[in-house]
Write a structure and sequence with these properties.
By secondary structure, the chain is α/β, with parallel strands linked by helices. It folds into 3 domains: about 5-100 and about 175-460, Glycosidases (TIM Barrel, Alpha-Beta Barrel), CATH 3.20.20; about 105-160, Oligo-1,6-glucosidase, Domain 2 (Oligo-1,6-glucosidase, domain 2); about 475-545, Immunoglobulin-like (Sandwich). Helix content is about 25%, strand content about 15%. It is built from 16 helices and 20 strands. The strands form 5 sheets. The protein has an 8-stranded parallel sheet. It has a 5-stranded antiparallel sheet with strand order 16-17-18-20-19. The longest helix has 15 residues, at about 175-185. It is globular. The structure holds 1-O-alpha-D-glucopyranosyl-D-fructose and calcium ion (CA). 1-O-alpha-D-glucopyranosyl-D-fructose binds near residues 61, 98, 197, 198 and 383.
């Protein structure tokens, strides 16, 4: 079984992890300084968000040089030291490969925009306008049109994300060869795996037809993702890069469905695993991220069940409850007030007991929560800042927009890691690039390190349990139906052992869904037994060895 199927993976957003040189920005030496902490979690690999040279309009996902390190994050020497430090501790490195677009400050784009005859012109998508406006009605993930008019040649270029992230034309063989060279370069530096940023959108529909979808997530699925040559491009990368370099891959798959995901996970020609967004778009209305909708535990449960069924026989899921693009998991799915500790532990139980490779986002192992911004000016996220420009045009008040971003904005995930209760949460000795969450005085790694009942030590215990349990790593998944709709109970079963995971995703006491006699408790987030299941109670039990 490939290492990735047994692994627990830790995601690090380096700018917000630890600032080793006190310039206010997290950096590679900061990650190196914390390698013993990372190893103490029991994780097997680190997924590092992009560290390439970038104007940093979109947190490094706007790359201007794929072959060099962003100066404020460190040097190539630091990178070599980080790889060595991880491998020395028997941990692997997953690099974030930004395939769909480059920065507009990348030399390729600087050339491409010069003239229609330039040799780099077709590295990107250029079209004349229509009826005095953009070539079609496509909207950017970051609000506004997905096209920008460029004066030099009076044509529009496509950018599914910000205007500083022009989409690369993967239909051009030269683009594919250049991207392969980049991946080989990092593979030769010891990178063990790649996280493939929005890989599902790299094949565009010929002729750029208008979108006939009103719901933005339908637009992603039916218009931007799953293009006609996507499967072909994935197979080509697998043949020319991933297999020769023996690299594991995890695709970021907005727009995939349980019905089509396996197309990209073929054993010989596909990716190793993929992130789906079924649950991550569950609380988004037709307007996307800043158009929240109520979600239910029932819906949440069915999504996990449906996706497990999709990967039951082939393919492999990457399981996550939060990352740098979404609100903190305890604030979004749990209860970050009176049940902060219990619900953090419950979500950790869910994440680490689910079938598929679990990815834990930095800070979720200590229960970091959302941040409350009091003004949009405090946001450091282009998606939010640009979203506010559109919201204002649509007459939304700042109060209403603040509610949206305080619930769903990406700033929530990008606050500096809370190391201790000192100034700047021990992240830096100077005020960081991004606001520190004031609750770092109580929620921080130092306060939890030696507390046996802390979220951090519960996480460590759950990692040990998962890694020593065949059912939890390889076993089949089955939902156990419950009367109580806020109870999520499922089984993980190998041919010799069965674990039952019981989760109360509510702030109410409920009846136990099954008889616990003759069952051994493996782990739980409440100490003593209780006649009813308590608010946000999580427990894993297994049948006692038959006497
Ligand atoms: O995210 C793209 C994506 O599909 C969305 O899941 C993401 O939430 C985005 O914010 C739209 O709401 C990837 C990266 O993870 C993200 O950080 C980048 O901003 C984006 O691609 C562009 O590279
Ligand atoms: Ca720094």
């Amino acid at each position: 079984m490939s290492w990735h199927k047994r692994a627990v993976i830790y995601q690090i957003y380096p700018r917000s992890f630890y600032d080793s040189n006190n310039d206010g920005v997290g950096d590679l030496q900061g990650v190196i300084a914390k390698l013993d902490y990372i190893q103490s979690l029991g994780v097997d690999a680190v997924w590092l968000n992009p560290i390439y040279k970038s104007p940093n309009e979109d947190g490094g996902y706007d790359v201007s040089d794929f072959y060099s390190i962003q100066p404020e994050l460190g040097t190539m020497e630091d990178f070599h030291q980080l790889v060595a430090g991880l491998h020395l501790r028997n941990m692997k490195l997953i690099m974030d490969m930004v395939l769909n677009h480059s920065s507009d400050e990348h030399p390729w784009f600087q050339q491409s925009r010069l003239s229609k005859e330039n040799e780099f012109r077709d590295f990107y998508f250029w079209l004349p306008g229509k009826n005095g406006g953009p070539p079609n009605n496509w909207k950017s993930f970051f609000s506004g049109s997905a096209w920008q008019l460029d004066g030099a040649t009076n044509e529009y270029y496509l950018h599914l994300f910000s205007g500083k992230q022009p989409d690369l034309n993967w239909d051009l063989p030269t683009v594919r060869e250049e991207m392969k060279k980049i991946m080989r370069f990092w593979a030769n530096k010891g990178v063990d795996a790649l996280r493939l940023d929005v890989i599902t959108t790299i094949s565009k529909r010929p002729g750029f037809p208008n979108s006939d979808q009103t719901d933005f997530n339908d637009t992603i699925r039916k218009v931007y993702a799953n293009g006609p040559r996507l499967k072909e491009f994935v197979a080509e990368l697998r043949r020319d890069v991933f297999d020769p370099a023996q690299m594991v891959t995890v695709g970021e798959g907005p727009g995939i469905s349980p019905q089509n995901a396996l197309e990209y996970l073929d054993n010989e020609k596909g990716l190793s695993m993929i992130f789906h967004f079924g649950h991550m778009f569950l609380d988004q209305g037709s307007g996307g991220r800043f158009d929240p909708r109520k979600w239910s535990v029932e819906e949440f449960k069915r999504i996990f069940e449906e996706w497990d069924r999709a990967f039951a026989k082939q393919g492999w899921g990457a399981v996550f409850l939060g990352n740098h693009d979404f609100a903190r998991m305890v604030s979004r799915w749990g209860n970050d007030k009176e049940y902060h500790v219990q619900s953090s532990k419950l979500l950790i139980t869910l994440l680490l007991a689910m079938r598929g490779t679990p990815f834990i986002f930095q800070g979720d192992e200590i229960g970091m929560t959302n941040l409350i911004l009091s003004s949009v000016n405090q946001s450091r996220d282009f998606e939010t800042i640009n979203g506010w420009r559109t919201a204002q045009k649509n007459g939304k008040s700042e109060k209403e927009f603040l509610e949206n971003i305080n619930y769903a904005g990406r700033d929530n995930a990008r606050t500096p890691f809370q190391w201790n209760d000192q100034a700047n949460a021990g992240f830096s000795s100077v005020p960081p690039w991004m606001m520190v969450n004031p609750n770092h005085t109580t929620i921080n790694a130092a306060a939890q390190e030696n507390d046996r009942d802390s979220i951090l030590n519960y996480f460590r215990a759950m990692v040990r349990i998962r890694k020593n349990s065949i059912p939890l790593t390889e076993g089949q998944y089955t939902t156990i139906e419950c009367q109580e709709k806020n109870l999520y109970v499922f089984e993980r079963q190998s041919d010799r052992e069965k674990m039952i995971i019981i989760l109360n995703l509510s702030s109410h006491e409920l009846e136990w869904p099954l008889d616990l006699t003759n069952h051994e408790k493996i782990i739980g987030n409440y100490e003593e037994r209780h006649p009813r299941i308590r608010p946000w109670e999580a427990m894993i039990i297994k049948k006692s060895e038959s006497r």
